[in-house]
Structure formats: structure tokens, C-alpha cells
Amino acid sequence: MTAPTAVLIGPPAAGKSRIGKRVARILGVPFTDTDSQIVAAHGKIADIFAEHGEPHFRALEREAVRAALAGPGVVSLGGGAVLDLDTQADLRKLPVVLLTASADAVRKRIRGGKRPLLASGGIDAWERLVAERTPIYEALATRVWDTSSRPVDQLAAEIADWLASRAGSDGSGRGASE
Ligand SMILES: Nc1ncnc2c1ncn2[C@@H]1O[C@H](COP(=O)(O)OP(=O)(O)O)[C@@H](O)[C@H]1O
Ligand SMILES: O=C(O)C1=C[C@@H](OP(=O)(O)O)[C@@H](O)[C@H](O)C1
Ligand SMILES: [Mg+2]
User: Fold this and answer.
1) Which of 54, 73, 104, 117 is the most exposed place for a label (fewest CB within 10 A)?
2) How many domains does the chain have?
3) Annotation-wise, does 168 bind a ligand?
4) Which residue out of 17, 18, 117, 150 has the highest number of ligand 1 atoms within 8 Å of its CB and is therefore the one to mutate?
5) Distance 14 CA to ligand 3 centre (A)
6) What's the domain range around 34?
7) Alpha carbon distance 87, 84 (integer Å)
8) Which keywords fit this entry according to its UniProt record (predicted)?
9) pLDDT at 177
10) Are 15 and 155 in contact (CB under 8 A)?
11) pTM for the structure as a whole
């Protein structure tokens, strides 16, 4: 059965989409970003929230996550995907990389308005989301990288090295000691 090489989770603007893509390229495996899948099938995330509400977005997201986790390669999730209990159960069987970032680092990264949950509240809203979700992120993480003050290339190389070094260690990729 095909299983993802790794799944990237973490708060909005931690770098999941950008770093995940780079890790996949280094390893020569496919890359799937669940938000991109949703946008391709259903249109812009901000429009989905505005027209149908967050619960509808979460249902579309769960389906995109389920499909992505059934395939190979590196999978980057949206920041709120881990709120879904079925997704939490799925992630317990996989190598999960948690990307974190400080509020100072993220403040510069969240301009542009494509994240509806941050559209009015900015960095304060981000900090509230992170406080609520941190227990879930930490419970699911196999390993954590902080992206606040290191370049994408360096972080991606380290994550790819780590994944390559554990490949085939016990067949699950999840590892015994973490
Ligand atoms: N390590 C990093 N250093 C500086 N900027 C970064 C870093 N990682 C990501 N970014 C930038 O932050 C923004 C959000 O990155 P993105 O990959 O979309 O995050 P996420 O998918 O976690 O929301 C992008 O503009 C990206 O280029
Ligand atoms: O944290 C969240 O609830 C969300 C994060 C976004 O993805 P990124 O984490 O890739 O920004 C996107 O899925 C949507 O705007 C909701
Ligand atoms: Mg993303």
C-alpha cells in the first residue's frame, strides 16, 4: 500500500507549503498540498469561507486530506486540518513534521489576505489559533522544526536528510524511538 513519505502540519505561515514542496523535490517524490487541491477543485479558499462557511470548508478539507494521505510523497496540510478527528487518527500512523514559527516571524509572512481566519484579526488571531491548536500539533508531531529564523533551503535539506535516514527503518516510517 502507498503511504506518504511525510506529512507537514503547523500554524498558518509556518512554511508547510513552501518547505514541503522543497523537501519533495530533494527526495524526488510527489508533492501534494491539500489547500491547492481544494482550490483546484472548488475555487479560492476565501470565497469558500465567504460563500459556504468554515464547516463546509472543513468537510472539503477532510476529503482532500483523506485522498492525499492515500497517496505517496510529501503532503502539506492546511493549518486547521488537524482539527478533524479522522485526520488526527490517520496522522498517528505516519511520520509527521510539525513546523512552528514565532509571531514576529509570521507577522511579515501573513500579508495578502488569502487566509480568511486571519483577515480581520491579523497576528492576534494567529496567536489565538496557535494557542488553541498547539496541544494537537504537539501530540501528533514525530519531529518539530522551527522556521522563524532559518532559510527555507536549509530547513528543507535537514528535513529531507532526516526522512531519508529513517526510510525503511521499520516499514512504517514512523520510527520506534519518537
Ligand atoms: N523559513 C522561512 N523563512 C522565511 N519565510 C518563509 C519561510 N518559510 C516560509 N516562508 C514564507 O512565509 C509565507 C508562508 O509560507 P507557506 O509555505 O505558505 O506557509 P503555510 O503553508 O505553513 O501557511 C510564504 O510567503 C513563504 O515564502
Ligand atoms: O489554519 C487554518 O485554519 C487555515 C490555514 C490555511 O492554510 P495554511 O496553514 O497553509 O496557511 C487554509 O487551509 C485556510 O485558510 C485555513
Ligand atoms: Mg499552506
Assistant:
1) 104
2) 1
3) no
4) 18
5) 8
6) 4-166
7) 5
8) Amino-acid biosynthesis, Aromatic amino acid biosynthesis, ATP-binding, Cytoplasm, Kinase, Magnesium, Metal-binding, Nucleotide-binding, Transferase
9) 43
10) yes
11) 0.94
Please provide the distance, in angstroms rounded to a whole number, between the alpha carbons at the two ends of the chain. Answer: 23
What is the best residue among 37, 109, 159 to mutate for testing ligand 1's pocket, by most ligand atoms within 8 Å of CB? 109
Q: Is residue 175 part of a domain?
A: no
Residue 164 exposure: Cα atoms within 13 Å on the Cβ side: 13
66 is in an annotated binding site: no
Stretch (H or E) spanning 18: helix 16-27
Query: Is there a domain that residue 176 lies in?
Result: no
- 172 occurs within a structural domain: no
Residue 168 has a pLDDT of 61
Regions in the chain scoring below 50 on pLDDT:
171-172, 176-178
17 among the known binding-site residues? yes
Q: Which of 138, 139, 143 is nearest to 161 (CA)?
A: 143
CB 62 within 8 Å of CB 111: no
Burial level of 171, CB count in 10 A (0-12/13-18/19+)? exposed
